[in-house]
Amino acid sequence: MSHPLRLGIAGLGTVGVGVIKIVMQHGDMLRARSGRDITISAVSARSKSKDRGVDLSNFDWEDDPVALATRDDVDVYVELMGGEDGPALASVKAALNAGKHVVTANKAMLAIHGQELAELAEFKGVNLRFEAAVAGGIPIIKSLTESLAGNKITRVMGVMNGTCNYILTRMETAGLPYDEVFEEANQLGYLEADPNLDVGGIDAAHKLVLLSSIAYGTQVDFASAQLQGIQRISIVDIKHAAEMGYRIKLLGVSQMTDAGLIQTMRPCLVPALSPLGLLEGGTNMVIVEGDSVGQIVLRGAGAGEGPTASAVFGDVMDIARGINIPVFGIPAAQLTKSTPADSSGESAYYMRLNLKDKAGAMASASSALADAGISIDKMTQHSSDDNVARVLIVTHPTTGETASKAAQAIENTGVLELPPVVLKIETV
Amino acid sequence: MSHPLRLGIAGLGTVGVGVIKIVMQHGDMLRARSGRDITISAVSARSKSKDRGVDLSNFDWEDDPVALATRDDVDVYVELMGGEDGPALASVKAALNAGKHVVTANKAMLAIHGQELAELAEFKGVNLRFEAAVAGGIPIIKSLTESLAGNKITRVMGVMNGTCNYILTRMETAGLPYDEVFEEANQLGYLEADPNLDVGGIDAAHKLVLLSSIAYGTQVDFASAQLQGIQRISIVDIKHAAEMGYRIKLLGVSQMTDAGLIQTMRPCLVPALSPLGLLEGGTNMVIVEGDSVGQIVLRGAGAGEGPTASAVFGDVMDIARGINIPVFGIPAAQLTKSTPADSSGESAYYMRLNLKDKAGAMASASSALADAGISIDKMTQHSSDDNVARVLIVTHPTTGETASKAAQAIENTGVLELPPVVLKIETV
Ligand SMILES: NC(=O)c1ccc[n+]([C@@H]2O[C@H](COP(=O)([O-])OP(=O)(O)OC[C@H]3O[C@@H](n4cnc5c(N)ncnc54)[C@H](OP(=O)(O)O)[C@@H]3O)[C@@H](O)[C@H]2O)c1
Ligand SMILES: NC(=O)c1ccc[n+]([C@@H]2O[C@H](COP(=O)([O-])OP(=O)(O)OC[C@H]3O[C@@H](n4cnc5c(N)ncnc54)[C@H](OP(=O)(O)O)[C@@H]3O)[C@@H](O)[C@H]2O)c1
């Protein structure tokens, strides 16, 4: 039996408490599986007095996460505070510099500082693990880094923000407008302190760019990911999509092409009866395509105390078992800088145009589309109660660039009451 | 850079050739990911002269797999011949005894000899890995052993025989009887040399019992798995199930209860629009439930050159990276003997009774059901062209034991033309 593996846990919110419960409830099981005791030396959070529903009296308390991260009796620093910079980054750096392994669920920090932190961890010969940062309980990091290591990965896709998926499916099932469901999600505590992280697609894109790095051996590049949030999706779009056999999902796609790396996170139409289309509520799904394996689909809870703590613990157990592989699958020094590329290939697009109620509006819009070289597959027009003509279009296959240019051209004609909604129809 | 990892591959069929292709095509990628060269020292199969579509001239040839397994220039013995005993078992033992790591796709061998082989591997301090043995390209072994190591696993379920799933979905989509689709599958080369391994549920049960061992820390116990094949499923069952919103799948369920370990592999009705219900053709799906993670669903190709070779290579890469954990997740010496238990809990059952066309047949059947304490939720009667009255029944929730006893009682009355078909309706 090896000596115990001693954790220091910073952040005692949803995830931190989940991790503590696993240690408290499953001591024997963890020992059998890892060959050693897993213990907690000390913890940290902002408020020492808050009742967190677990007994912390056996653990030392540190007010300062940096002090926690560098304690002599901590082998693994578990960072569960969150935040791109601030105490999370400072303490993780301090831990790595002190030669401690780090486990974190912090996608925001890794999406921005992942390269630097990976280089530091590998220089120090310690682990930096982050299974919980992407898609909660779904074992996607390990699958991509280890199980699929014999594959050239060709595409990674996923629905990786449970809050957005909750909002979109709830709008459909309850027939409620975006604003109302957004407020509901807020009341339920589903939204981040800055809701734009969720509904703007930022949180999901943080996850996607981590997957890209592993998939293609490239440095994490959040800055060139193309983002579009779900804020402009209306119940009309959802209903119309459903009539045509589609559902709208905030879908991330990462693909390496000859032109470079495509990373998009945006609402798309997907076939209603496909695995992605059937995804309800807060559930996440990641789809990986590799040259040998074909397509693998992984589905599970993307957030919450238990699922996220489960992922954190997978990493802890790997460290207990002595596993140490490069943070992003190949040594950080060998990760290449990718060239960002625009979405390649053609596909059908869905457009919603809210036209001003004036003569010639439709004609101007149509000719702008035709000028852009877009031909129309289906079109329906509805007049709404607010004197706006709502035109719903499905185009014949075209490029994303052409679709955006056409939408811009229509907007430039001044006939639109609202900015156009343009959504790709993904064939998955 | 460490020294190369040198493979010896026995079996150059579908999977073996797939593995060789990965080594040949992806040398640079494998080196970047594992930090060392992966090479092939020697290979073995029955026929040296057969053209296998890959150039074998750079590898030594061994007629005898045991000789291959123990060569000085082999670090990892990759067993891809198949078969429960014979050369597979002999060569794997020889490899382990010689201190070589072993990677295999051979579920039949492991389901019977897994405990003995795991003990030997751990005694020798080498790896025995078998990701490819269960559900092809789906990373279920690693997910269960490593990613979910912080969970008490509560249930594992899966559709893990692509051939059966092909037959069942093809019967439904083409409206063809079992025998015809069976013949079709045979022509397509989908069936094992002994087709009963597939359609009898044996191959899928081999996989299920390996998952049980990891999930619950118990010794592999194939002998007490309860098996029922798909041979008696008729197109009538499939159609009737569809009308009620179900699909029939050969479903494996492994569950640890207070009474003991339940391991069943049998055709069941599952909701048509559930992930399991939507599974088409040769695709596999494994569902794992853990106390922290909730439910995780993994889907992918369960067989074929690429997917299976991908799984073999995941294991090879782990060995190249120096990962070595117990074969079934905890040391083999600590795996406990499980007590087999019958399916627990109540659920609805589907029954098909083919009654002899004689007076009182229905009355006898009904009273046998009533005597067994089974109440009927739905019943429809059809008379077929062959003078048999076909009665389709859905029961109110009852235990599996009661359902089987009732079916036996009906059979004992002598009113049945054919043995009854009794299928559990799974709520997944
Ligand atoms: N929640 C999920 O389902 C989920 C899923 C995947 C990933 N994650 C990630 O996991 C991390 C934690 O998420 P969470 O949901 O557990 O957050 P949370 O419930 O808001 O908890 C955050 C914890 O960090 C502590 N904290 C914040 N700033 C601190 C500081 N400056 N010094 C010391 N402690 C500080 C807080 O202390 P007080 O309690 O005293 O305020 C709190 O205990 C984040 O990176 C998040 O993105 C969460
Ligand atoms: N095929 C799949 O999709 C799949 C999926 C998962 C797991 N598996 C497992 O993977 C293993 C291999 O399957 P496979 O489909 O690749 O089988 P296969 O195509 O039938 O190939 C078997 C290979 O083993 C060789 N072989 C058989 N007996 C031998 C002996 N006594 N000595 C030396 N070589 C011998 C054969 O040699 P010859 O070619 O000279 O006859 C052949 O090359 C089996 O355990 C199977 O259950 C297969």
UniProtKB/TrEMBL annotation, chains A, B:
Recorded hits in InterPro entries, A to Z, give: ACT-like_dom_sf, ACT_dom, Asp/hSer_DH_NAD-bd, HDH, HDH_cat, NAD(P)-bd_dom_sf
Top-level division of the source organism's lineage:
Bacteria
Q: Which SUPFAM superfamilies match?
A: ACT-like (SSF55021), Glyceraldehyde-3-phosphate dehydrogenase-like, C-terminal domain (SSF55347), NAD(P)-binding Rossmann-fold domains (SSF51735)
List the Pfam families hit by this protein, alphabetically. ACT (PF01842), Homoserine_dh (PF00742), NAD_binding_3 (PF03447)
Q: Name one GO molecular function term.
A: homoserine dehydrogenase activity
Task: For this entry, list what GO says about its biological process.
Answer: methionine biosynthetic process; threonine biosynthetic process
Q: Where is the ACT domain?
A: 350-428
What's the Enzyme Commission number for this chain? 1.1.1.3
Q: Where is the active site?
A: K207
| Residues involved in L-homoserine binding | E192
Q: Which PROSITE patterns match?
A: ACT
- Residues engaged in binding NADPH: K107
Which keywords belong to this entry?
Answer: Amino-acid biosynthesis, Methionine biosynthesis, NADP, Oxidoreductase, Threonine biosynthesis
Query: Pathway of this protein?
Result: Amino-acid biosynthesis; L-threonine biosynthesis; L-threonine from L-aspartate: step 3/5; Amino-acid biosynthesis; L-methionine biosynthesis via de novo pathway; L-homoserine from L-aspartate: step 3/3
Family of the protein in this entry: Belongs to the homoserine dehydrogenase family.
- From the Swiss-Prot or TrEMBL record, give the protein name: Homoserine dehydrogenase
- From which organism does this entry originate? Paramylibacter kogurei
The top of its lineage is: Bacteria, Pseudomonadati, Pseudomonadota, Alphaproteobacteria, Rhodobacterales
